[in-house]
């Protein structure tokens, strides 16, 4: 964590204050896009690989989600707005469970699934997962290390889909 996160956050968020609604809207749109595409990708996996491949995919992704959620509950890192006197651009009421970012993990592992189905689609979705990570930091709901960890863990769990 930075010595003075408030100064860092004020520097990156001040130019965006008048666009807070846009940031919040983009955060919702990107998040919902991933969650809407996920069942479509699972159907695609079923049609391409059958029930065994689908169940393996769900087990890997679900297991990763469970372990990540367990780890973040045990670690229970406070969110930036809990620790520092900052005004987040994205409204969030929850306390703790900041590290690692589950939003970014989920988006990244779904993007990795898309990558197994279509490289161009997967690449575009990995880019969107990175954009979501940036939005979560700019929005004040995560530290950079939270989203970086979520992204890296999402890639690592996603690589298991290739085994």
UniProtKB/TrEMBL annotation:
GO MF annotations, alphabetized: phosphatidylglycerophosphatase activity
Positions of transmembrane segments: 29-46, 52-70, 104-135, 141-162
Keyword Transmembrane helix: yes
Domain Phosphatidic acid phosphatase type 2/haloperoxidase: 53-162
Leading EC class: hydrolase
Gene3D superfamilies: Phosphatidic acid phosphatase type 2/haloperoxidase (1.20.144.10)
EC number per UniProt: 3.1.3.27
Keywords, sorted A to Z: Hydrolase, Membrane, Transmembrane, Transmembrane helix
Protein known as: Phosphatidylglycerophosphatase B
């Amino acid at each position: 964590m930075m010595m003075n996160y408030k100064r860092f956050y004020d520097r990156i968020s001040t130019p965006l204050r008048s666009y807070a609604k846009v940031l919040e809207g983009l955060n919702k749109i990107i998040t919902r896009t991933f969650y809407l595409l996920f069942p479509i990708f699972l159907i695609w996996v079923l049609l391409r690989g059958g029930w065994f491949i689908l169940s393996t995919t769900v087990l890997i992704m679900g297991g990763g989600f469970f372990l990540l959620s367990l780890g973040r509950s045990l670690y229970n890192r406070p969110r930036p707005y809990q620790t520092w006197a900052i005004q987040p651009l994205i409204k969030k009421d929850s306390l703790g469970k900041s590290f690692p970012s589950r939003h970014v993990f989920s988006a990244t592992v779904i993007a990795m699934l898309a990558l197994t189905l279509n490289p161009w689609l997967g690449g575009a979705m990995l880019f969107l997962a990175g954009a979501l990570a940036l939005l979560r930091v700019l929005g004040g709901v995560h530290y950079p290390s939270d989203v970086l960890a979520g992204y890296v863990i999402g890639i690592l769990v996603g690589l298991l889909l290739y085994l």
